[in-house]
């Protein structure tokens, strides 16, 4: 019997046994570093000479894995096998497809720390964050499986005398999943299994930064019984195969999560009908954020400082949901800043593959350089009050950094940095705070810390973000609790982990029978 969906609990690392088990998983994974990984097409493992080399960002000398790179010819082969697999996969019942996801979730749950340990190497994710990433991947599988079974019943519509009308959903055809590196298990799993459980074969092109943990997911889905051709694993250079996957005339949907630049490029290219293409492509594009926490004059200031701290510096601010703007009422500005700085003093920075730290390294040299550049920009745009140090001798380490008195129109307040940098700005009243919060092109997450119900009610409608939080931070959406997706240039508001998500990968069909 299938129990109702329940969110996978997080591991409590204050318990000694849990810490020891995690250390054992890190040790086990360390023993497997540096291996070679193939592409997977039609169930066949293909090793190529040209490899993506994945390094541990916290220890640049450590190779996590060497992953075969797909070419355009491999994309063609994978698409051919996906089209063949579609003929049968679409006819599996929703329950049969869901059972594969239940089994995959069970396999990951049994090896949970091992998956999180891979995240500690492949993306340098701290233990708690890695554990939450793995838990979210399990949640996506469990949630979408149950939800597909519900959707397979179709929806009620009206009959008339002598006429029976039925409204139901069917799969669309093969499509492409293109995830980012920052939730290297959860987002890869969610964006891959959703179209699959809906009956569509998927060509998965993982991020070049974190291909090994993506391979581990594909292995699990195969072990769980996914038929050949339903999932192809195509790591590669996005400059070589990215456009090709999107443009392919047989691609029915592109399930993308990543930056605004790549997302808008994909939306534009997917809108062009290619020779031989017989359908319109659907694009789900979940993109960047420039997320704000507002602190009202009557707020609980400890709650405010804690919310800013963990939303800005959790996983080194490398979340689309990260708080990079703190907009504070003038009467409490100094106090909130002081409390946040005080909390930031306790943040530990190090290599999570070796120890339990608050922040690991940022993902690569490019990101490290970009964040350092924004720190320099911030010094000209306002006052550096905490942090600012960065060291890439061993890994790409950037310390938590806080700026104050930044103009709402300044670059630090407008551009996505994707690192541990938060800018404070002062406002005179709630109107001004809301105006500042809405003055970016993004609209992903936001939070209001306030005890004024009238202000909270206004924010409910006027704070223009897809995920709004009251009296807590703006990161950490949980499948089934906080369906996730942004407004404006943050994306297509697909609401991952929510009741509308699977419909992006389904066609609704109306059948009307006259008797
Ligand atoms: N809104 C969300 O739910 C969400 C979640 C996580 C991350 N993000 C965003 O993702 C970004 C960070 O991730 P990233 O650095 O991996 O983003 P990115 O746009 O650089 O890459 C995302 C994916 O797109 C691929 N890609 C790059 N060029 C491509 C092309 N021309 N055609 C097809 N695919 C191509 C990459 O290989 C990768 O797999 C941030 O902007 C962050 O805010 C958004
Ligand atoms: N869903 C995650 C963010 C994903 C983007 O990086 C959160 O809610 O913090």
Mean pLDDT: 98
Topology, number of strands: 23
- Report the uncertain regions: none
For the CA atoms, what is the radius of gyration? 23 Å
Q: What's the end-to-end separation, in Å? A: 38 Å
Give me the number of helical elements.
Answer: 15
Largest sheet: 7 strands, mixed
Percent of residues in beta strands: 15-25%
Return the structural class.
Answer: alpha/beta
Ligands (ions, cofactors included): nicotinamide-adenine-dinucleotide, 5-oxo-L-norvaline
The strand order across the widest sheet is 14-17-18-13-12-20-21
Q: Overall 3D geometry?
A: globular
Share of helical residues: 25-40%
What does this protein look like?
This protein has 515 residues and is an alpha/beta fold. It has 15 helices and 23 strands. The strands form 7 sheets. Strands 14-17-18-13-12-20-21 form a 7-stranded mixed sheet, sandwiched between helices. The chain has a 5-stranded parallel sheet with strand order 9-8-7-10-11, with helices on both faces. Helix 9 links the parallel strand 10 and strand 11. Helix 1 packs across helix 4 and helix 3 runs antiparallel to helix 5 (127-151). The longest helix is centred in the N-terminal third of the chain and has 25 residues, at 127-151. It is globular and about 70 Å long. 54% of the residues are buried. The protein binds nicotinamide-adenine-dinucleotide and 5-oxo-L-norvaline (A1AUG). Nicotinamide-adenine-dinucleotide binds at residues 178-183, 187, 205, 207-208, 238, 242-243, 246, 257-259, 262, 265-266, 286-289, 320, 416, 418, 444, 484, 486, 490-491.
């Amino acid at each position: 019997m299938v129990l109702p969906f329940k969110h996978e609990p997080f591991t409590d690392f204050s318990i000694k046994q849990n810490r020891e088990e995690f250390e054992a998983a890190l040790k086990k994974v360390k023993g497997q570093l540096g291996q070679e990984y193939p592409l997977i097409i039609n169930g066949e493992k293909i090793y190529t000479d040209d490899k993506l080399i994945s390094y541990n960002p916290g220890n640049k000398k450590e190779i996590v894995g060497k992953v075969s790179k797909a070419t355009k010819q491999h994309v063609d082969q994978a698409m051919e096998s996906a089209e063949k697999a579609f003929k049968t996969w679409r006819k599996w019942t929703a329950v049969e497809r869901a059972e594969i996801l239940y089994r995959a979730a069970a396999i990951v749950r049994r090896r949970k720390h091992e998956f999180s340990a891979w995240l500690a190497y492949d993306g340098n994710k701290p233990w708690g964050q890695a554990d939450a990433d793995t838990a979210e991947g399990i949640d996506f599988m469990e949630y979408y499986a149950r939800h597909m079974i519900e959707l397979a019943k179709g929806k009620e519509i009206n009959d008339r005398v002598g006429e029976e009308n039925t409204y139901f959903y069917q799969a669309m055809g093969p499509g492409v999943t293109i995830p980012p590196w920052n939730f290297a298990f959860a987002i890869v799993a969610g964006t891959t299994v959703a179209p699959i459980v809906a009956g569509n074969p998927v060509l998965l092109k993982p991020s070049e930064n974190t291909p090994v943990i993506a391979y581990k997911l594909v292995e699990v889905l195969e072990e769980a019984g996914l038929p050949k051709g339903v999932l192809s694993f195509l790591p590669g250079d996005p400059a070589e195969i990215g456009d090709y996957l999107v443009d392919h005339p047989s691609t029915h949907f592109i399930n993308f999560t990543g930056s605004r630049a790549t997302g808008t490029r994909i939306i534009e290219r997917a809108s062009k009908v290619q020779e031989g293409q017989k359908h319109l492509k659907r694009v789900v594009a979940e993109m960047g954020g420039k997320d704000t926490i507002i602190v009202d004059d009557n707020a609980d200031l400890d709650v405010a400082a804690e919310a800013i701290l963990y939303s800005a510096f959790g996983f080194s601010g490398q979340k689309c949901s990260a708080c990079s703007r703190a907009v504070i009422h003038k009467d409490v500005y100094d106090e909130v800043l002081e409390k946040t700085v005080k909390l930031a003093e306790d943040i530990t920075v190090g290599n999570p593959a070796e120890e339990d730290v608050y922040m690991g390294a940022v993902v690569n040299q490019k990101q490290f350089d970009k964040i350092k550049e924004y720190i320099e920009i911030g010094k000209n745009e306002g006052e550096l009050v905490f942090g600012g140090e960065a060291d890439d001798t061993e890994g790409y380490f950037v310390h938590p950094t806080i700026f104050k008195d930044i103009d709402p129109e300044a670059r630090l307040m407008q551009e996505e940095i994707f690192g541990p940098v938060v800018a404070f700005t002062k406002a005179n009243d709630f109107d001004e705070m809301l105006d500042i919060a809405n003055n970016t092109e993004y609209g992903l997450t936001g939070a209001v810390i306030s005890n004024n119900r009238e202000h909270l009610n206004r924010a409910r409608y006027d704070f223009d973000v897809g995920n709004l939080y009251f009296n807590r931070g703006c990161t950490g959406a949980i499948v089934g609790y906080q369906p996730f997706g942004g407004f404006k240039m943050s994306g297509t508001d697909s609401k991952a982990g929510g009741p509308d998500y699977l419909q992006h990968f389904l066609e609704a069909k109306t059948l009307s029978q006259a008797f």
